[in-house]
């Protein structure tokens, strides 16, 4: 049997992962789960901070504490930590007495806020954050779906997002209505550690208002462009030339634990003119489509996404031409796993690892300076 990528595969530590919507983190520390580990995120006076969710003193969850200006205060014994993880005060030792040298909270390699999400990279990431250019383009309105949670692993959910052959079957009541079951050849282009998929399709477009009046047919041309960045960052731009509309979907996944993935979906539209009612209606429709996917994905009896193998590690699945995007996903994730395996084991950045990451500190600081929006 081939190897599988699970939600807790160690190689995923070398990636950016969304852990919360920006609006979910306010004045109090927020606990999150990532790759089977507990983390805490907080807004301090000098910016965003994240730590492994345990105090080095008695391993109490730091998320049970509070924010005091530029420090996170442990709720158990009042130890104070700044964003670097340095402990600035131990009340039981008295004023002015320095904390023990090992009294450090464990930050990830990086934490940033971008595209309406808060992201953590537990260890130095192999790939930068995905871009969402439509967010800065005039005429686009944006709406977030409420985050969903699925028992399916993140790899399977990413594969489903890239798959178009399932539309006539899983989405027969929504976007797959009347769609041809044949998937025409399409192009997959390598783009750094990720890839871009481009295809021209004929699909149902029930959201075109002229379909209801009979001026436009239900099934229309669509130019679809998928952009993928490992491990689980995706963007889909849908252009309907006949209707003169563009929909973009930002789709990012948080592998929380084995059997738990949190899903962040953002819809950007250029055809609704800022109409909040219509944007809410569009979001409900998109949620319906997602719910159709999740209902099937959660019935899979797989603990991970099968990766592309070799002669010694045979391929577990049968793929056809229509699966070119899914095969590219498996190859990209297999490459991530192989690249991580070639790194020397250091334990750096892992909760409880206790090692400073001096060599990456300068690059981490530069990344924060140039990418936070």
Find the CATH topology of the largest domain.
Answer: Naphthalene 1,2-dioxygenase Alpha Subunit, Chain A, domain 1
CATH superfamily of the largest domain: Naphthalene 1,2-dioxygenase Alpha Subunit, Chain A, domain 1
Give the amount of beta strand, in percent: 25-35%
H/I helix tally: 6
Short account of what is shown:
This protein is α+β, with helices and mostly antiparallel strands and 373 residues long. Helices cover 19% and strands 31% of the residues.
Q: Helices and strands in order, then pairings?
A:
Elements: E1 4-5, E2 17-21, E3 30-34, E4 37-44, E5 47-52, E6 66-68, E7 71-73, E8 80-81, E9 87-89, E10 110-114, E11 117-121, E12 141-144, E13 148-150, H1 154-162, H2 167-170, E14 187-191, E15 194-204, H3 209-212, E16 219-229, E17 233-240, E18 245-257, E19 260-269, H4 276-297, E20 305-306, H5 324-341, H6 358-371
Antiparallel strand pairs: 1-20, 2-11, 3-4, 4-5, 6-7, 7-8, 8-9, 10-11, 12-19, 13-19, 14-15, 15-16, 16-17, 17-18, 18-19
Helix pairs in contact: 1-5
What features would you describe in this structure?
The chain is α+β, with helices and mostly antiparallel strands. The chain folds into two domains: 17-121, Rieske Iron-sulfur Protein, CATH 2.102.10.10; 133-336, Naphthalene 1,2-dioxygenase Alpha Subunit, Chain A, domain 1 (Alpha-Beta Complex). 19% of the residues lie in helices and 31% in strands. It has helices at 154-162, 167-170, 209-212, 276-297, 324-341, 358-371, and strands at residues 4-5, 17-21, 30-34, 37-44, 47-52, 66-68, 71-73, 80-81, 87-89, 110-114, 117-121, 141-144, 148-150, 187-191, 194-204, 219-229, 233-240, 245-257, 260-269, 305-306. The radius of gyration is 22 Å and the shape is globular. Mean pLDDT is 90; it is low at 348-362 and 369-373.
């Amino acid at each position: 049997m081939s190897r599988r990528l699970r939600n807790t595969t160690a190689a995923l530590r070398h990636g950016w992962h969304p852990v919360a919507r920006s609006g979910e983190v306010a004045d109090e520390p927020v606990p999150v789960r990532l790759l089977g580990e507990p983390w805490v995120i907080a807004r301090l006076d000098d910016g965003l901070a994240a730590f492994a969710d345990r105090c080095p003193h008695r391993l109490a969850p730091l998320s049970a504490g509070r924010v005091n200006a530029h420090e996170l205060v442990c709720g158990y014994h009042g130890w104070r930590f700044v964003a670097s993880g340095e402990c600035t005060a131990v009340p039981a030792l008295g004023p002015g007495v320095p904390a023990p040298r090992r009294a450090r909270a464990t930050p990830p390699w990086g934490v940033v806020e971008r595209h309406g999400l808060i992201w953590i990279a537990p260890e130095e990431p192999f790939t930068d954050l995905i871009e969402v250019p439509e967010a800065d383009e005039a005429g686009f309105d944006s709406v977030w779906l409420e985050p969903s949670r699925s028992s399916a692993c993140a790899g399977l959910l990413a594969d489903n997002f890239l798959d178009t052959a399932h539309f006539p079957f899983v989405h027969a009541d929504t976007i797959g209505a009347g769609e041809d079951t044949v998937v025409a050849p399409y192009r997959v282009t390598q783009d750094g550690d990720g890839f871009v998929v481009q295809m021209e399709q004929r699909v149902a477009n029930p959201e075109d208002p002229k379909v209801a009046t009979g001026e436009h047919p239900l099934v229309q041309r669509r130019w679809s462009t998928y952009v993928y960045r490992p491990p689980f960052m995706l963007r889909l731009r849908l252009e309907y030339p006949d209707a003169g509309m563009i929909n973009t979907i930002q789709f990012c996944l948080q592998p929380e634990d084995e059997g738990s993935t949190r899903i962040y979906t953002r819809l950007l539209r250029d055809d609704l003119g800022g109409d909040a009612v219509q944007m809410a209606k569009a979001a409900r429709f998109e949620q319906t489509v997602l719910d159709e996917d999740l209902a099937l994905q959660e019935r899979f009896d797989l603990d991970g996404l099968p990766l592309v193998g070799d002669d010694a590690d045979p391929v577990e699945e049968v793929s056809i031409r229509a699966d070119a995007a899914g095969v590219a996903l498996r190859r990209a994730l297999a490459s991530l796993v192989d690249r991580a395996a070639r790194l020397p084991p250091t334990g750096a950045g892992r909760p409880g690892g206790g090692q400073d990451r001096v060599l990456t500190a300068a690059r981490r600081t530069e990344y924060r300076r140039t990418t936070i929006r």
